[in-house]
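Try this one yourself first.
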């Protein structure tokens, strides 16, 4: 009879061989395709790809924050519950949904990183390419010269940058969020062998093997080195229309520069990655690359995890001007607020808000303080609402009574999910608008508030679908809270959406609502506010 150890070893060999085969197929598929033919035949608009993949990009940015929290929670447990195991299965399925669309684009443009392909930047001549036959082994060398000033050169540069962005998202997520599971013997075993559904077993090992595959790493370093070459051209041509006017190009560059893996691996060269590179599922790695990866793993997880909190995944280039308000000014704002006031914000420096259409980019709901909630008859309902948030949605924040008493007065849907936060946390913005439903009765306000509190704990709606109920974005929070109001929506890609600007336009044109506060670039606006709001929406 075959003993358990033998079965375990056989299982490991099978899984290892399977992943190596997957990596081999990926590499072979890329090598079998011509980069020049890809240049000539790929007509997909990168702007359309970015637009269509926006939800996957945002989810990938946010997923690491959720995974970090999950690891910290499970790492403290001696025994995982059935609910914990169910969540692990759910998390694996969500990761698959996030990884696979990104991987499709990486695969699409992988030929640009084939060993037989040489790509250079040259703005002195039009984009051109040729093939050369080696005298030594009769292999075909593809030589590509890209001019960033012509249409074809720009198209190829953006294709490579897009594939690099998606690869970096996956590498960053592995380093920050998956590596801790891989290095934790208990959790690694649970995920790979015993604690998840059969179709999910070994998936962590598969991803780890893929992450450390020498051929994939060589391709990544090749793309990083190419991007570095492009960046040197960008430094010398900062007045280029490509850098000034192309929003897609700006978006890709910001995502690349915000990647932890990019900054670390930029220090490597392709020759650092040797064909003899080996790894087993216990992370026994032996070559120069191992040292680099270990440095990233050891120093990166804590560093990067601190970058994601309530603003998980929101890459920023600076802080908001509203943060510079004095404590007195912030207290004055709080004093003027009433329950169910709707807060609008603008933060143009926040990357993931960059492509949100219109002026306003985020919406929140003011919950009120303890006295106000007691006066409306909502206070006593909060413990039950909190229990529902915990039991139904897995909410891990403090109970609602403690939240309100500690100054958490704003209900908002952020990428980690719907939560209740402080004004201080909210004010990392440039502009703030507050609009009030002046015609609502206390009974209406109570009903709306209960609706708003009922959203806490729900996941962020990366599909931006107003008809979803268990997942919502910030504008859908208002949509769901004021359930009897008729809101304007827009059909996009087969689903109905509502943007912050659509919320603002409804509020400012409805006579039952009135603007009560407006700050632009950190400065309070006095006088008649409605015309100013209208001007911002034009």
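Now uncover the answer:
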């Amino acid at each position: 009879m075959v003993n358990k150890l033998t079965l375990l070893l056989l299982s490991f060999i099978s899984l290892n061989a399977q992943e190596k085969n997957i990596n081999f197929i990926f590499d072979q598929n890329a090598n079998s395709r011509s980069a020049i033919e890809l240049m000539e035949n790929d007509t997909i608009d990168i702007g359309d790809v970015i637009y269509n993949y926006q939800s996957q990009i945002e989810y990938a940015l946010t997923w690491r924050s959720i995974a970090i929290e999950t690891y910290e929670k499970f790492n403290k447990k001696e025994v995982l519950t059935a609910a914990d195991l169910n969540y692990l299965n759910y998390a694996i399925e969500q990761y698959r949904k996030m990884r696979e669309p990104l991987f499709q684009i990486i695969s699409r443009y992988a030929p640009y990183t084939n060993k037989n392909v040489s790509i250079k930047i040259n703005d002195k001549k039009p984009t051109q390419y040729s093939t050369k036959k080696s005298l030594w082994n009769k292999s075909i060398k593809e030589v590509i010269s890209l001019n960033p000033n012509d249409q074809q050169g720009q198209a190829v540069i953006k294709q490579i940058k897009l594939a690099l962005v998606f690869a970096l998202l996956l590498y960053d997520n592995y380093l920050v969020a998956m590596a801790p599971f891989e290095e934790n013997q208990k959790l690694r075993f649970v995920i790979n062998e015993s604690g998840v559904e059969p179709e999910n077993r070994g998936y962590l090992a598969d991803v780890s093997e893929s992450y450390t595959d020498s051929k994939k790493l060589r391709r990544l370093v090749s793309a990083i080195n190419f991007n570095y070459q492009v960046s040197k051209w960008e430094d010398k041509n900062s007045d280029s229309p490509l850098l000034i006017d192309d929003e897609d190009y700006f978006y890709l560059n910001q995502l690349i520069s915000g990647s932890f893996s990019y900054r670390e691996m930029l220090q490597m060269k392709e020759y650092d990655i040797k064909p003899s590179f080996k790894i087993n599922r216990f992370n026994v790695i032996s070559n120069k690359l191992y040292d680099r990866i270990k440095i990233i793993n050891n120093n990166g997880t804590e560093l990067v995890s601190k970058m994601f909190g309530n603003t998980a995944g929101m890459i920023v280039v600076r802080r908001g001007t509203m943060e510079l308000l004095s404590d007195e000014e912030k207290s004055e704002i709080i004093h003027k607020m009433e329950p169910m006031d709707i807060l609008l914000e603008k933060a143009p420096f926040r990357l993931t808000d960059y492509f949100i259409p219109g002026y306003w980019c985020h919406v929140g709901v003011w919950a009120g303080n303890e006295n106000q909630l007691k006066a409306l008859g909502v206070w006593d309902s909060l413990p039950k609402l909190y229990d529902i948030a915990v039991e139904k949605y897995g909410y891990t924040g403090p109970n609602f009574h403690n939240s309100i008493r500690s100054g958490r007065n704003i209900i908002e849907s952020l990428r980690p999910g719907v939560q209740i936060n402080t004004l201080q946390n909210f004010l990392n913005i440039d502009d703030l608008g507050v609009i009030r439903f002046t015609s609502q009765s206390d009974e209406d306000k109570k009903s709306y508030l209960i609706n708003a509190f009922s959203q806490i704990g729900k996941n962020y709606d990366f599909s931006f679908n107003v008809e979803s109920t268990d997942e919502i974005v910030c504008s859908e929070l208002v949509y769901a809270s004021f359930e009897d109001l008729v809101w304007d929506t827009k059909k996009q890609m087969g689903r109905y959406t509502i943007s912050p600007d659509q919320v603002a336009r409804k509020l400012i044109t409805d006579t039952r609502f009135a603007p009560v506060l407006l700050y632009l670039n950190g400065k309070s606006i006095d006088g008649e506010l409605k015309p100013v709001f209208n001007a911002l929406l034009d």
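Discussion: The chain has two domains: 19-113+149-305, 321-537. The chain has 22 helices and 14 strands.
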